Amino acid sequence: MDAIALKKLVFFVNELMEKYFDYVQRRVRLERETGDNTILVRSLDRFHRRLQAMNKLLPDTDFSRAGTDIVSKAAKDRVYHYLQSLKQHFSDCMTDVRQNLAAPRTVGKHDSNSYLNDLLNNTQTAVVDQIKSVLNNLQAFLDSDITFAMKPYFRGPFCVQGVREGLIVAFLNHISSTCLEFCEDKDKGSAPPALLLILSKLCIEFEASTISYLLTLTEEQFMMTERFPVTSVTDLCNNAKDAAQKLLNHFVKVQGLSISQMLRKSVETRDWLNTIEPRNVRAVMKRVIEDITAIDAQVGQLYEEGVRKERSSDSSRRTHPHSYMGSAALRKGGQWNYAPSIDNSLMSNIQKLFSEKIEIFSAVEFSKVSVLTGIIKISLKTFLECVRLRTFGRYGLQQIQVDTHYLQLYLWRFVSDENLVQVLWDEIVCSTVHRCLDPAMMEPSVIDLICERG
């Protein structure tokens, strides 16, 4: 009789406990969005203690597994909630940066030499501080007076799989993937170039020290000793560096194409056959120099100068291209045989074989001079391709001479190797000569005089 009564009692208790667990789960789910963990953790601790007491009252029952599942699920929900909170915070930081970049700046309000660097530091500090705050909040689950905190079946999965992998690693991967989204070409809502630059440097800073610091901090605060498979610091750093590289490449592409657009329109909208004799540098060339100078100042706020190849002492003077065929003859005789001789064609082709091949859209290094070199290469290559599609008169050719000379006077100081872009400058003038119906070169002294007047 006692056995039958005990069996019925156990069945009755199990039935009630199932309902009880269901109510507890529903109530805990309501606390998913709560801002304070203290009350939730204390409630879960009391719930866990009472289950232990139930097991002692009825030795034939074991509610530990069901109770542990509820506690673990509640902790997992809190981790997920904080992950979403961190993602939203990062999105808000991006919005703040965009607004600061778009807002008109009052003269004297910001130091123009450190404005982007200040935005970068503020963003990085805000993100790291928010992560620290979240980690401190989650430590409530591991307080010494919490009964389930020291249980291996809770502590190991919560600390490693929950906090480290599910929160910190997941958020760091989210930052990298979010940054990569800015590299996608979109018709609407394209990112401002300065934002690409800031995010690129942010990823570099994370790769250099922040990722390692955050993971070390997490492991120390949560005393991780369990041997679970985890994402390595190296993998996370590689992801961040890859994102930084793609962002910087995209920045170069965007800025290069912006300047290219100006150059393309300036070539396509002009009647080069009937233009007048050049008396000054075209306004678009001055605008190109202004934009390149502004980009140089912008990049210089975040990246180091970089390495330049040693230039010759007469770089500022050696600005008249002589590599194209027939230029000397043009200056002497003033006439050009449009159907080139076999010798000239042969020499031109041989020269191209030995000229340095220039990769226009190659990956850039994390330095100012490399970034500017990439932008200038894209711009000059566009200029060259546009020239090859037009037909020029004598004065059109001379105007191109003046424009390229003016660009060369100022752009050489921005590039890593002036010989690299010298090839493009020479090709622009050479192509113009070949596309000219009545080629006659302007004297270098006259070109110098026009460019000095601006």
TrEMBL record:
GO biological process annotation, one example: Golgi vesicle transport
UniProt entry keywords in alphabetical sequence: Golgi apparatus, Lipid transport, Protein transport, Transport
TM annotation in the entry: none
InterPro entries named among the record's database cross-references: Vps51
Cellular compartment(s): Golgi apparatus, trans-Golgi network
One GO location term (cellular component): EARP complex
Family in the record: Belongs to the VPS51 family.
PANTHER family: VACUOLAR PROTEIN SORTING-ASSOCIATED PROTEIN 51 HOMOLOG (PTHR15954:SF4)
Biological function: Acts as component of the GARP complex that is involved in retrograde transport from early and late endosomes to the trans-Golgi network (TGN).
Name of protein: Vacuolar protein sorting-associated protein 51 homolog
Species: Mytilus edulis (Blue mussel)
Species lineage: Eukaryota, Metazoa, Spiralia, Lophotrochozoa, Mollusca
